[in-house]
Amino acid sequence: MRMSAFFGKTLREEPAEAETSSHRLLLKSGMIRQVASGVYTYMPLAWRSLRKIESIIRQEMDAAGSHELRMPALHPLELWESTGRADAMGQTLFGLRDRRDRSLVMAPTHEEVVTQTVKANVHSYRDLPQILYQIQTKFRDEPRPRGGLIRVREFDMKDAYSFDADEEGLDRSYDAMVQAYRNIYRRCGLNAVMAEADSGAIGGKDSHEFLLPAESGEDLLIHCSGCDYAANAERAESVKPPLEHEEPLPLEEIHTPGMKTIEDLGVHLGIPAPKTLKAVFYACDGEVVFVTIRGDLEVNEIKLTRLLGCRELRLASPEEVEAAGLVAGSASSIGLEGIRSIADDSIRTGANFVVGANRPDYHVRNACYPRDIQPDVIADIAMAQAGHACPRCDSPLQADRAIEVGHVFKLGTFYSESLEATYLDRDGAQKPIIMGCYGIGVGRLLAAAIEQNNDEKGIVFPDAIAPYQVYLAALNVDDPEVMQAAGDLYRQLTGAGLETLFDDREESAGVKFNDADLLGLPVRVVVGPRGLRGGTVELRRRDESEGRSVELDGVADAVRSLLEGTAG
Question: Does residue 359 belong to any structural domain of this protein?
């Protein structure tokens, strides 16, 4: 492709609206254009990369024994209501009505439709197992689209679904998909970490995310320095730092004027945060819930939501707190009645805590569990933190920002039971089909690759997903010898099967070099009058600092060697 005829322009200025490295570089390189919040046009360069990612995904999914199909993006709302997910997804669902006033949704995912499809085609254990997948556009009305292609409202996703007769079969399908995902990330040049995760609104008993460490990531990856334990912070467990053993002391009320935070209390009393218990008030489907946790820890709202089994969890409003008779800043569960009380298991790790006295400007010393604090439920509802001990090997945990680039779930029988998708087993008994689901966001994978592979000059594309393999730059295009040699070389490279972007524009060498670095194609070839006098051109890999001179008739072989990593 000649750049003089190419559709799309690079930007000279930094895009002001960019939030992340990938967002900035995708805009600056002219690979995407924003149409609306969270909605983008993929320009030709981006589309070439996306097609390569899709090809890798298809190859690995097919090799794992799955079958590609295509399902509709428009779904009847009643189908989602039949599984309860219309309420669970809430405002994330895009809804519309057709001319007959029937309610439809724009699909954010396809569990319901694929289950219906399998129900119509699977009748016996002989029809199982099956793994079906598609690469299709999805729609989610995200409240805060961000980061370019990281979180959008319209996106392409590979979603796959497995159907098995028993749990052992589900385990085999799950393992096959996990291996396919590992292969996909490896071939795309990405260092993704498989981590335990929460299943969210999709449901399921087991779930793992594939996370790509990146400073701009929305997720927090908690992982162990001594073993392979890794989990999304929403799911991660840890061994909380223990406190020294103390004998319980008598309760003692103390005056704490204006002290409403753990920090203020610690400074005023000269005690560390772990010697306090803080109260957090939540509304669980409208019901106020009292939560107690050690002062050095934070509530993991995903764990709490799962424990309470509520659809909507949020911090209680000041009005709800007051109506419940609670004293913000000076509350504890001592003597609490009429309100559901939940405590993190950290209350068991010590004694003689400072807690609220349930009246303004007063706290109580020496509160102990279970003598003074008697919650309805005790569970692990804390966020795991860097420095906590690993739950498997006691080594210190580490924490890194990360981007989710894939998610796999063991769904079980929720959807098959809701939609009556059953099969006849060997004994003639009817049983629900056991399901799994597996998703990869294609555009997000491109953005994540750029987040992990860039420098101060621009993108550094992994070879397998670069839009072109070679950036061929002709310097001094008004020199007939240069253009003749560059044109011949372009034909040589393309004839050798090397995807080449030929920069034949009437631009300065500086502009061309800057665009070469910005676009980040794996190999740059420069044809200039100085080199031609010696019968050579310059080759340089984008991820190397030094170039090399190569004779004109050996350029294609030299480029191929650079791409294969065999050049000396």
Answer: yes
